[in-house]
Amino acid sequence: MVYQATVSAPVNIACIKYWGKRDTKLILPTNSSLSVTLDQDHLRSTTTSRADPSFTKDRLWLNGVEEEIKPNSRTATCITEMKRLRANLEAKNPNEPKLSQFHVHIASKNNFPTAAGLASSASGFAALVKSLATLYQLPSTPSELSLIARQGSGSACRSLFGGFVAWEMGSSPDGSDSLAIEVASREHWPEMHALICVVSDDKKGTSSTSGMQRTVETSALLQYRIKHVVPERMKLVSEAIKTRDFNTFAKITMQDSNQFHAVALDTEPPIFYMNDVSRAIISLVVEYNRVSVDAGGPIKAAYTYDAGPNAVIYTLKENAKEIIELIVKYFPQANQFRDPFGLFGENGVQGKVVDGFNTTVVKPFGIGAVKELIHTQVGDGPRVLATEEALLGDEGLPP
Ligand code: DP6
Question: Fewest CB within 10 A of the end CB: N or C in the chain?
Answer without folding.
Answer: N
